[in-house]
Amino acid sequence: MSGTHKYPTISFRISPREREEIEAKIFTSGMKKKDYFVRSCIYNRVCVVGKKETVYQIVERLQEMENRLVELAEQIDGKKPGITSEEIRDLREAYEDMLKAILWMLDGKRPIRGCIEISGCCM
Questions:
Q1: Is the dihedral of CA 11, 14, 16, 17 positive or negative?
Q2: Which of the residue ranges 32-36, 77-81, 100-104, 114-118 would you say has the lowest mean pLDDT?
Q3: Backbone torsions φ then ψ of 10, nearest 5 degrees
Q4: If you average pLDDT over every residue of the chain, what do you get?
Q5: Count of CB atoms within 10 A of residue 122's CB?
Q6: What is the three-class DSSP state of 44?
């Protein structure tokens, strides 16, 4: 039967800000969304094992962030900022999300493998 699924879907609404933070953590975990949500809700933790592919993706993202910051600094030094204060705020929040997610992941990595406890998840 087309259009039917064997297992039910769980869905919930979150704010755009919450989504950005969750997406950053999922990205740094290197997991699929489904696996991340299942592990965090059932076990109240996400175990992250460093994979080369994930580390390379994180390094690429950090390099993109650095390049964007250098561009902004050059614009500001040249007195020609091509970005609004709202765009700066959005950029700052995105960078904070990514950096917090990376620190969150690294905090649980002692020394090779780590489990990160998620407090208050799925209460």
A1: negative
A2: 114-118
A3: -110, 130
A4: 78
A5: 10
A6: coil
Instruction: Judge whether 24 and 18 are in contact, CB under 8 Å.
Output: no
The pLDDT score that the predictor gives to residue 99 is 87
Q: What is the rounded end-to-end Cα distance, in angstroms, of the chain? A: 35
pTM: 0.56
In the numeric block, which tokens belong to residue 35? Answer: 């696996």
pLDDT at 28 over 90: no
Cα–Cα distance between 80 and 83 in angstroms, integer? Answer: 9
Query: Is residue 27 a contact partner of residue 61, using CB atoms and an 8 Å limit?
Result: yes
Can you tell me whether residue 115 is helix, strand or coil? strand
Please, are residues 61 and 98 in contact by the beta-carbon 8 Å criterion? yes
> What token pair was written down for 42?
């059932």
